[in-house]
Task: inverse folding
């Protein structure tokens, strides 16, 4: 896996510059669209979160790693012919972590409804359920080059239930959007 470095931002509070938590930033890994990239991507994301000292709850960490596995598996299985390389991006904010997988295949998948007689085809449904249960969100977007980015954003800690016992959704709207920006 190739790795592109992270970046850090400086915020202002009342006109006084303040440093963001040291774990914040954006990291991007590239890998060939082959089966061995699935565990490599999962381990790279886990190692990054640990190395950066991200205060992520274990339940959320497990969800993030499962999402990475599902998204990379989908890219390997369904996009490899048109996208021999994939990119995994990890963006860490003060209260959330977002993972995305980008490939060059133009097909924009939709989360399939659960068909319990079927043995596959529910990866995106699982991603959507993990994101929603944790108070996060996910989406699929087209890239300028005609490919797609599938992403999920989860809070670093499980969300407190909102009205009616339903978790509040995260405010992250895009892999390239910083939810803390005004």
Result:
């Amino acid at each position: 896996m190739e790795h592109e470095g992270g970046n850090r931002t400086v915020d202002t509070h009342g006109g006084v510059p303040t440093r963001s938590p040291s774990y914040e930033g954006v990291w991007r890994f590239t890998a060939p669209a082959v089966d061995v990239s699935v565990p490599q991507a999962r381990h790279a994301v886990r190692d990054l979160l640990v190395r950066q000292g991200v205060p992520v709850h274990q339940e959320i960490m497990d969800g993030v790693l499962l999402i990475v596995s599902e998204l990379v598996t989908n890219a390997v299985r369904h996009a490899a012919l048109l996208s021999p390389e994939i990119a995994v991006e990890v963006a860490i904010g003060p209260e959330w972590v977002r993972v995305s997988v980008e490939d060059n295949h133009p097909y924009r998948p939709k989360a399939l409804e659960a068909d319990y007689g079927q043995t596959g085809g529910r990866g995106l449904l699982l991603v959507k359920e993990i994101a929603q249960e944790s108070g996060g969100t996910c989406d699929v977007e087209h890239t300028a080059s005609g490919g797609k980015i599938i992403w999920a954003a989860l809070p670093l800690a499980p969300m407190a239930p909102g009205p009616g016992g339903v978790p509040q959704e995260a405010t992250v709207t895009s892999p390239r959007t910083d939810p803390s920006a005004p």
Q: What stands out?
A: Residues 7-13, 166-171, 177-182 have pLDDT under 50 and may be disordered. Helices lie at 37-51, 58-79, 123-134. The first strand starts at residue 2 and ends at 4. The CA atoms of residues 90 and 99 lie 5 Å apart.
